[in-house]
Amino acid sequence: xxxxxxxxxxxxxxxxxxxxxxxxxxxxxxxxxxxxxxxxxxxxxxxxxxxxxxxxxxxxxxxxxxxxxxxxxxxxxxxxxxxxxxxxxxxxxxxxxxxxxxxxxxxxxxxxxxxxxxxxxxxxxxxxxxxxxxxxxxxxxxxxxxxxxxxxxxxxxxxxxxxxxxxxxxxxxxxxxxxxxxxxxxxxxxxxxxxxxxxxxxxxxxxxxxxxxxxxxxxxxxxxxxxxxxxxxxxxxxxxxxxxxxxxxxxxxxxxxxxxxxxxxxxxxxxxxxxxxxxxxxxxxxxxxxxxxxxxxxxxxxxxxxxxxxxxxxxxxxxxxxxxxxxxxxxxxxxxxxxxxxxxxxxxxxxxxxxxxxxxxxxxxxxxxxxxxxxxxxxxxxxxxxxxxxxxxxxxxxxxxxxxxxxxxxxxxxxxxxxxxxxxxxxxxxxxxxxxxxxxxxxxxxxxxxxx
Length: 452
Fold this sequence. Notes:
The chain is an alpha/beta fold and about 450 residues long. Helix content is about 40%, strand content about 25%.
C-alpha cells in the first residue's frame, strides 16, 4: 500500500508510477478532493505523460462518485488548467509531474478561481481522508453520482491571454521555442498564432518519455539545443518551457540565459505601468534589482517565502498585481493570481518588439548584480550546518540576519540565502553581490562552512 505522506509535497501530490501513484489510489484522491472542496462541479486536465490520461479518468471517477460533475479538458498545460478553474469558477486538478523524469506523475490541485490548495488550505484534510479510506475502504456516498463530460478550452485560453498583452503592433520578431516534448508544443501554436512572429519550433511533438532532453530548463544542459538554434539562425530570442509549460525560460539573441529575476523586473515594470502602480511580490532569493525596479516604477515590493502556495496567498492578501520567483514562476492578478509562463513570455515579446534594440540591451537595466544561481550541497545534518553558518556571520558588524525562509545574511554589497530542501538532504545556497569577485568570495566562504 503506497505511503500517502511520502508522495504529498508542499502543495501537490507526486510520485513514481505505478509504485507510489496508481489509478486505484488516484480514485481515492478524486473522492477526497470532491469532499474537501465541496465542489459540485470540478475541472480536470492532464499532460502528455503516458500515465496521465488514465490517472485523470480515475480521479474523475472518484470525484463523480461523491456527487461532483466533472469537466475533462484533456491535454493542457498547468496554466491552462488554472485558466479553466478561473474561467469556469470551479476547483481543478492537473495531472503532471512538471519537469520531473518520465517515470513520475502527480496532481496539482486548486480551489475555484485557481486558489491554492496547500497544507493549510485543504491538502492535509485530503491526505487524512485518503489514508482513512486506504485503511477502512471507501464508504458509500449518499450523493447522486455526478456526470463526466469533455470540453476543449485551448482556444478560449489562448484568446484570453492575448487580451492581456497586445502584440499586434510590434515589429516582426524571430523566436525559437523549445517545448522539450512537453505541453508547450500543444499551447504555443494556439497562443502565438497570427501574431507578427516567425516561430521556429523545437521538440513540439508531445512525448512524455522526453526523447530529446528532460523538460527542465532550469538545468543548463537542457537549453543547449535552444541556445545553438538561436545563434545559428540569428533569432531575436529563444523561449524554453518546462514539461507542463507553466514556467518559461528566456535566452537572448546571443543564446545567453536571461535571469528570471531580470524577467521579473521587466514584467513588473510593465504591469505597474498598465495598472498605474500597485504591489509586486518577490521571494527572498530574487535579485536586489527586483525591489529596486518596482520602487523606481512607482510600485510597492513585498518580500515573501519561496514557493507557489506562499506567493499565491500573499498575492491574495495584498491585492498584488504581479509576483515573480527565481525559478521562473510568474503570477498575475489578471490571471486569478496564478502562475503562467506563457503570459510572461508574451510580455517579453511585447517589450522587445516595441523597441528596436536587442534583448540583451533591453534587459541590461534589469540585471544589475552578480549572482551565483542556486547551488545544492548534500549534507545529512542540515540544521547543524545551517547553524554553523549563522554562528559564523552573527557577530559581523553591519550584517543583518533574518529567517523568513531559511537563513538570509545581508551586507552592504552582498547577500546570501541558505535554505534546507523539504524533500532531500540538501542545503540550497543563493549568493548575490555588486560585483562578480565579491560574489565568488562570499559563495566560496559559505560553501566551505556548509561542506565542512
